[in-house]
Amino acid sequence: MADAVAEAKEEIRRRLADAIRDMEVETAADTARVITTAGWFEMELLETAVAAGMSEASRLYEEGEYFIPELLSCADAAEEATKIFRPYMMGQRPEPKGCVVIGSVAGDTHDIGKNIVALVVEAAGYDVFDIGRDVSAERFVDAVIEKQADALALASLMTTSMNHMADVIQLMERRGCRQSCRVIVGGKPISPSFAQKIGADYYSASAGDTVRILDEIMKTHGN
Question: What is the CATH number of the domain that holds 20?
Fold first, then answer.
């Protein structure tokens, strides 16, 4: 009997991850309802199903099989499942792995990629404070200090706004929070060499990359 239940749980986990990867919003929501109705919700599902499905979607995007519309549909499916899980998360959520502030820098009104990264990072077990798009350096640094963030993730999809990432890092240094908070930068025009040039700690090419980087940060620098 126990084996049958374990097999059923694994099957439903795979079904949810596949629905997210395959952009099946209604299937993802229905599967999440089956999980909660059966009393099978566990926090690890956010990583093994929701984040796993989004990681697969990110991989397909990186390989050129998916484009922005497909990635958005995957994110919609993940968000629908997460909405259904959220009331059940309150009593089960373990201590967060760490705290992350994320946003798109001043002058950049795009937030598609940033929203996907925020969703995947939250599903991976981090406290995520998404402060939006077109965010000034002052607002970023205020949030880092207020939340005592372990990491700051800066996004830019525009060459005209990417240099504002350097403004944020410089202000962090002036206000004394740079040493305690690692900076991750990403977005279409961003490169590892640009990240190094402006003094960022890490360059991220995808949502999955960001989770791996955060895990490394917490392993190396976490309390």
Answer: 1.10.1240.10
